């Protein structure tokens, strides 16, 4: 009966933020479809809107509120369900917003169908007992790559970061569940699996060593165990790691990346700052010299590996000399991609009350200079592959400006090239023949 009733209800999910949130949106999508709900393709016509929020910056908070307001104006009679990280500490800022009927914390996302079926209250309600239920996916809508969340929670306490406050303690998905989930996605046709988590490198620290038979008596389980297990699965696919903190990059992990083409030659290793005083105030557990030493070690152990990174500019007390140190680190390490953020005060973090904020004009200048340095560094990294063939996973959407096919190599170079739609979702060799600061061009030869 419920399925028949639910079939008349159309839902629309809007996701903000990281790969973990995107994974959890896919899991909620599948839960609702199994419960008989129908997904609405138009954001103007749904009966239920689900806003999966982010709270990493003030901008993310504003965007989350914007979309709640947008959906209410688009369809005033619809229910709005708000979930995600913004709900964890800021529910009081959400409950009074027009149209918001339900608020779900992150670990309550698996109860999305129950809260919509069982609650008939007109006022705002919050879901459940807070019990954590496992999320599991069998598909990844509108993606060529599938993100698989294997871990939640963060053990680090960076001074600027709100994430540990809203994601809680470490929680690793059991290895057997990870392998089963990935096997199903590979069977579905996904050629790249991106392992993701809030603190990916900490996978296994909360798992008894005996759970991993190969490691019994050898200490904690580790991310390397996940990779070894997935490499044994049948099928043509490759494994990519999402963001991983420097302290989790071990010799064991590098050996796995260097020894098997099934593991992408790419690591996203956040730097945040190249200045020791700023790093100390950020509560980052390394110096600039130690970080750059790690990058040198990674490049020595894994031939042609790509590094991508995060840079946070404008942290309280960052001097011009400190900023210059960060620029120099980016120039030296030559990341293929650099995500640049400006500091945002987050209530509850150590840095919330820090003095020494730079004014907006200084921040704009530094952002622009860092952006140019990052583009130049990427160009220098990519230029070493001119004339070489790289294995590219072809996306299902063409580049909207040129109409070319587009895809990423295993070392995270986005390549544009001509070709037919029939080769989409395949991993194919593409020869790099041209590049500039913004683009890399290639040639696919069907022969």
Please give a structural write-up.
By secondary structure, the chain is an alpha/beta fold. It has 4 domains: 2-126, Methylthiotransferase, N-terminal domain (Rossmann fold, 3-Layer(aba) Sandwich); 137-264, Transcription Regulator spoIIAA (2-Layer Sandwich); 284-384, Transcription Regulator spoIIAA (2-Layer Sandwich); 389-443. Helix content is 33%, strand content 20%. It has 13 helices and 18 strands. Strand 1 (10-15), helix 2 (19-34) and strand 2 form a beta-alpha-beta unit. Helix 7 packs across helix 8 and helix 12 packs parallel to helix 13 (360-383). The longest helix has 24 residues, at 360-383. The model is unreliable at 119-123 (pLDDT under 50).
């Amino acid at each position: 009966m419920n399925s028949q009733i639910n079939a008349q209800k159309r839902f629309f999910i809007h996701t903000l933020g990281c790969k973990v949130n995107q994974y959890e949106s896919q899991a909620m999508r599948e839960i609702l479809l199994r419960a008989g709900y129908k997904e609405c393709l138009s954001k103007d016509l749904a009966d239920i809107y689900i806003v999966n929020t982010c709270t990493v910056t003030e901008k993310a908070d504003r965007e989350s509120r914007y979309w709640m307001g947008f959906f209410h104006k688009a369809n005033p009679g619809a229910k709005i369900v708000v979930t995600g990280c913004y709900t964890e500490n800021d529910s009081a800022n959400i409950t009074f917003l027009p149209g918001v009927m339900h608020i779900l914390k992150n670990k309550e996302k698996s109860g999305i169908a129950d809260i919509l079926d069982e609650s008939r209250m007109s006022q705002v309600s919050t879901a459940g007992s807070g019990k954590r239920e496992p999320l599991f996916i069998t598909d990844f809508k509108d993606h060529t790559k599938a993100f698989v969340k294997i871990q939640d929670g963060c053990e680090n306490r960076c001074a600027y970061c709100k994430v540990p406050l809203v994601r809680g303690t470490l929680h690793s998905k059991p290895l057997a569940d990870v392998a089963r989930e990935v096997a199903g996605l590979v069977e579905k046709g996904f050629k790249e699996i991106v392992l993701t988590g809030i603190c990916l490198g900490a996978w296994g620290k909360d798992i008894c060593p005996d759970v991993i038979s190969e490691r019994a008596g050898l200490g904690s389980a580790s991310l390397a165990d996940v990779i070894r297990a997935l490499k044994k699965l049948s099928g043509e696919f490759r494994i990519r790691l999402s963001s991983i903190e420097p302290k989790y990059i071990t010799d064991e992990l590098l050996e796995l990346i260097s020894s098997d083409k099934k593991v992408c030659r790419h690591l996203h290793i956040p730097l945040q700052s190249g200045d020791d005083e700023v790093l100390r105030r950020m509560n980052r557990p390394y110096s600039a010299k130690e970080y750059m030493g790690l990058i040198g070690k990674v490049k020595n152990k894994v031939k042609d590996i790509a590094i991508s990174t995060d840079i946070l500019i404008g942290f309280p007390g960052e001097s011009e000399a400190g900023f210059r140190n960060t620029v120099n680190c980016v120039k030296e390490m030559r990341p293929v991609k650099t995500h640049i953020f400006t500091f945002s005060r987050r209530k509850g973090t150590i840095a919330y009350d820090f003095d020494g904020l730079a004014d907006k004009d200084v921040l704009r200048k530094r952002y622009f200079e860092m952006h140019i340095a990052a583009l130049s560094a990427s160009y220098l990294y990519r230029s070493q592959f001119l004339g070489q063939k790289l294995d590219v996973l072809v996306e299902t959407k063409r580049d909207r400006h040129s109409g070319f096919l587009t895809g990423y190599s295993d070392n995270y170079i986005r390549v544009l090239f001509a070709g037919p739609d029939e080769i989409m979702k395949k991993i194919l060799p593409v020869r790099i023949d041209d590049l500039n600061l913004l683009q890399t061009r290639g040639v696919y030869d069907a022969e």
